[in-house]
Amino acid sequence: MTLENRGLILYGAYDLKVVKLPVPKPGPDEALLEMGCVGICGSDLTVWKRFGMGGNKTVHPKLLGHEPAGTVIEVGSNVTALKKGDRVAVEPIIPCSQCEFCKIGSYNHCEKVTFSGVHPKDGALQKYYVHRASSLHKLPDGVTLEEGALLQPLSIAIHAVKRGGVIGNSKVLIMGAGTIGLSVLLSAKAYGASKVIIADVIESRLRKAEEMGADFTYKVEDGEDEQTTVRNILKIFNEKPTISFECAGEESCVRVALKATKDAGVVVIVGLGTPEYTLPIFDAQVREIDIRGSYRLCNDYPTALELVLNKKIAIAPLVTHRFAIDDYQKAFELANTRQDNCIKVMFHV
Q1: Fewest 10 Å CB contacts: which of 25, 87, 189, 298?
Q2: In which domain, by residue range, is 243 found?
Q3: pLDDT reported for residue 117
């Protein structure tokens, strides 16, 4: 049977088109996948709107998609751990395996890393896609392709929770109840957090957080000053959190997290915002608040998969809307506007 490939290509800001593509051939260390599910990430939206991310502009048409799962249909000559018919989650990071960071296991800081759908490798929003086999994670029976695609944001959350040092009896504040914030909620609970409060500006997201196990929620009102936000969060929580996570990519959320967190506590910055923030550093210094960055993921897919497989984390409810690839305009607009109680938009390719 002759395979026909189609993919969703970004040609410029807001300029997406579904086009016919050649079917890629796997190299010796790669596998050819028939894609099943691909989620829309916040960074996809950033690239869609700006044709770039951070200070980097995309300089050629780009295939997006870095939250994928699919089925192996062909493997390269060196691949022995996978076979045709295996369902896999695709870890989008492909490290060089040779630099200093790769050698110590911190491959999220690899100096020559490629990240599918962001830079420079094309992403998985296409029917057939080639990826390095060592970055594919076989899905056991009982884990769906949608859940396989969701392992990517879940792994980001698990990495953040490990960076924050969440253990039993941790008291946690999460700023932002999007996919990453909700995934941090699930991960923090799985790692033993005894109390979690999550704050957002969208009521429907807070209702979802309650469904997914948040002990408390707080809606930040339009125009609310940060001192009011801090005061109200602490009133609801009845104590200061020991660990806070900023998951919205907003300066104001980092500031609230720093002011709300207990002395000698930890603030983990997970959301990707603007290159520079103005923060209350003196207050953080004298109260010995540790400020920790969390970037992407690193060796977290196996943990994420085990937690989902063993029903320790129920990640599937994050998906609120599903689209075929030809409905890309509706899908991206919905993910961007967050209307209709939208959390995660999933393409079924």
Answers
A1: 25
A2: 157-293
A3: 84
Length of the chain, please? Answer: 349
Identify whether 283 is part of a domain.
yes
With beta carbons less than 8 A apart as the criterion, state whether 345 and 321 touch: yes
Task: Note whether residue 245 is domain-resident.
Answer: yes
8 contacts 328 by C-beta, under 8 angstroms: yes
Q: Are 218 and 236 in contact (CB under 8 A)?
A: yes
Number of folded domains that form the chain: 2
Q: At 228, which CATH number?
A: 3.40.50.720
Please say whether the beta carbons of 75 and 33 come within 8 A.
no
CATH of the domain at 109: 3.90.180.10
Same domain, 175 and 263: yes
Dihedral sign of CA atoms 154, 155, 157, 161 in order: positive
Phi/psi region, residue 344 (left: phi>0; alpha: psi -120 to 50; beta: rest), is beta
197 forms beta bridges with 173, 216
Going by the DSSP 8-state scheme, the letter that residue 304 receives in this structure is H
Mean pLDDT of the chain, nearest integer: 95
pLDDT in tens, 85-126: 999 999 999 999 999 999 999 999 998 999 888 777 889 999
Q: Evaluate whether residue 304 is within a structural domain.
A: no
Q: What single-letter amino acid sits at 261?
A: T
Extract the tokens encoding 52: 């770039």
Q: Please state, in angstroms and rounded to a whole number, the distance separating the CA atoms of residues 158 and 200.
A: 20
> Are 134 and 161 contained in the same domain?
no
Q: What is the pLDDT of residues 137-186, one digit of tens each?
A: 999 999 999 999 999 999 999 999 999 999 999 999 999 999 999 999 99
Q: Whole-angstrom Cα distance, residue 315 to residue 274?
A: 29
pLDDT of residue 52: 65
Question: Do 104 and 152 touch, CB atoms closer than 8 A?
Answer: no
Same domain? 164 vs 213: yes
Let me know if residue 41 belongs to a domain.
yes
127 pLDDT above the threshold of 70: yes
184-219 pLDDT per residue, tens: 999 999 999 999 999 999 999 999 999 999 999 999
Tokens of 336: 């961007």
Question: How far apart (Å, rounded) are the C-alpha atoms in residues 237 and 126?
Answer: 45
